[in-house]
Write a structure and sequence with these properties.
The structure is a homodimer. A six-stranded parallel sheet of chain A has the order 5-4-3-6-7-8. Chain A has a two-stranded antiparallel ribbon with strand order 1-2. The longest helix of chain A is centred in the N-terminal third of the chain and has 19 residues. In chain A, helix 1 runs antiparallel to helix 4 and helix 2 crosses helix 3. Chain A is built from nine helices and eight strands. At the A-B interface, helix 1, helix 5, helix 6, strand 7 and strand 8 of A face helix 1, helix 5, helix 6, strand 7 and strand 8 of B. Chain A binds a DNA duplex through helix 3.
Chain lengths: 209, 209
Amino acid sequence: MKYLKIPAATISRLSIYSRALEELAQGQETVVSSKRLAEICGVNPAQIRKDLAYFGQFGVRGVGYFVKELLFDIKKILGLNKQWKLAIVGCGNLGCAVVAHESFVQQGYNFVCAFDVDPMKVGLKLATGITIHHVDRLVDVCRLEGVEIGVICTPPNSAQEVADRFREVPVRGILNFAPVQLQVCDTCRVEHVDFTVKLDNLAYHLTAN
Amino acid sequence: MKYLKIPAATISRLSIYSRALEELAQGQETVVSSKRLAEICGVNPAQIRKDLAYFGQFGVRGVGYFVKELLFDIKKILGLNKQWKLAIVGCGNLGCAVVAHESFVQQGYNFVCAFDVDPMKVGLKLATGITIHHVDRLVDVCRLEGVEIGVICTPPNSAQEVADRFREVPVRGILNFAPVQLQVCDTCRVEHVDFTVKLDNLAYHLTAN
DNA sequence: GCCTGTGAAGACGTTCACAGCA
DNA sequence: TGCTGTGAACGTCTTCACAGGC
């Protein structure tokens, strides 16, 4: 596996395919062609075959792909065949929404601890039962719990500080919801969920013509 | 303007540049070079110059760009020199977080109405003062308010239905937070904010080596 | 000397078209 | 016949390198 450089877009699409396959599996479908899957996901059939080809041969010529098998294989490629331990920082509406996000638990993403700066929130429990710690205890608690991925849902001006603490843990991956570019070291990967950029894209395209 | 096909990535970067310039302007900086701006945004300097070149000439050779002027120009390009009217559907944690998102108001994005299916929520007011309507009234209220962009924060299984209603309004842009591929007509543009895909990307890269 | 603006080169990703196989 | 797997063609985006101008 992974002999070649895999396009970033391929990984994102695998995630989409996995979601579509999950639907198909629930609908009792056993086989799917690249054409069919492509329609569901809104991509080119050749794209799907190429994406999969980076990782091996999963289909049967003249037939298609077995839904459950392919789903299993894609999840394995993505690293979803294990439980991930996550920490959330910032327990406002957004933080709560993220922790509660149903598809996360289902995919093996477990929030094992939560942090906030607000003394009023410290000690309270989130809906999932985890207790909110003060952000000053981030490094200790994350080490203790074996956190692998940090999620930042703080206001923009404290996001970098949080990232620095995550670095100290160390945490190897950060999902950042704050609208700022984070500075991190090479051993830490950041994925940025940026509402504003997406909205600006809409504004541009609705303005353009 | 817009003589050529503009790469989608260029538009997203303009949004990033605008954010960085906003920071610089607040820091009382009057001039910035493509090199400096590139460092802040984590891109190649030539990239910035190329991106801007699609829309005209904004800099001064030997000097750089005037921060405020460039900020103004980029905002105009993105269509942020007007107020946008948005509607939110789904007033759970995520919906509330989105409506309250500070940078939105600041950028001219105004939520003028809100909807939910839950009868317990209908009639309540959000923090910003807007009243929650039942989603059955979506088409009427959106027309009345002149909504231009719809934001979907519902669970995945009702997202398509909401998109269909938005189509009836009609709304020309949708920001979708639900983890499903929406089917819409050509005249409506969808931007998808997909947490799960981003997390899966992290999982993949933390697993890979 | 310094920094923008830009054609040309290069890297990258997607789509095509068909060989290979059930 | 039908659909996958894949080299080759194509198109797009990014980076380089330098001319142009302050």
